Amino acid sequence: xxxxxxxxxxxxxxxPIDENTFWMLFNYVFSDSSAKRTTYxxxxxxxxxxxxxxxxxEDCSLFISYENLFGKFSExxxxxxxxxxxxxxxxxxxxxxxxxxxxxxxxxxxxxSFAAIPFTSIPETKRNSIIKQISTECRRNVIGALHRDFQxxxxxxxxxxxxxxxxTYAFNFMLKYxxxxxxxxxxxxxxxxxKINDESVVVKLLEKLELATPQRDNLSVFQQxxxxxxxxxxxxxxxxxLHEIHVDxxxxxxxxxxxxxxxxxxxxxxxxIRKSNKIPRMEYVKLIQNRNxxxxxxxxxxxQHQFKTYKPxxxxxxxxxxxxxxxxxM
Length: 330
Ligand SMILES: [Zn+2]
Known about the structure:
alpha+beta, 2 domains, four-stranded antiparallel β-sheet, two-stranded antiparallel sheet, 14 helices, 50% helix, 7% strand, globular, binds zinc ion
């Protein structure tokens, strides 16, 4: 068994941690020197990256709940396993499949129609029960191991608690180099998958890993709030009156991988299409920050919930890091 697998709690290092240390640690985890029998470490890193904007709190630590962490984790694996048929574990002579794969197979055996649907379309009670089982399994097997690999620099945890606490230096590092870390993680994950899967399923492997986090297509709930409740009747970019309404991710979805009200604006079709996967010009950053200051005053439980993880400089930080990550200006 790999070191750290049976650890039940861990703290994070106090005091500043520099970027070189983080690069060294991430490169170690992506290398073969960090023991891996399954792809769970890659899955957990991806899930932490995908949950950076779901973290609560400020200053010294940021909390990500196991529910959020393993919700994303389960959804990613659902696509990799059931849609792309990618095995996620080195055979140990006794079993070919990791616990997650076994859980999915059992579910599909009981309910064959699930094989063809997205994870989010599985009935809620079934879905929550799967997330809970995966959370129990992976908390035991991967949270401690990854904590050990990162030498106490990434997060603190207690398996009996409700989630992990990201070190603030780790949070800032992961936000700043999100694009780069994501790519390195995919590369290492793909290399591992190539070793254990047949040639027929590893075609377009990087694309499959990227597509494992699906983009939500129904954004009507956000449109409803912004148009009806907040009364945004003009295009956020060109200010023309809206006839046909498009819901636009201000910071592109492919950077944030998250649907949050504070990152949505309404746009006319022309501006939305022109913007596509680009980031808006700097002057719009100030505009959306002011917009968010007003929006969060709306007396609505949905709005309050959406803003729970919002921080004052989040948009300008993301804007800067997306730009250095290669996103071009509109
Ligand atoms: Zn417009």
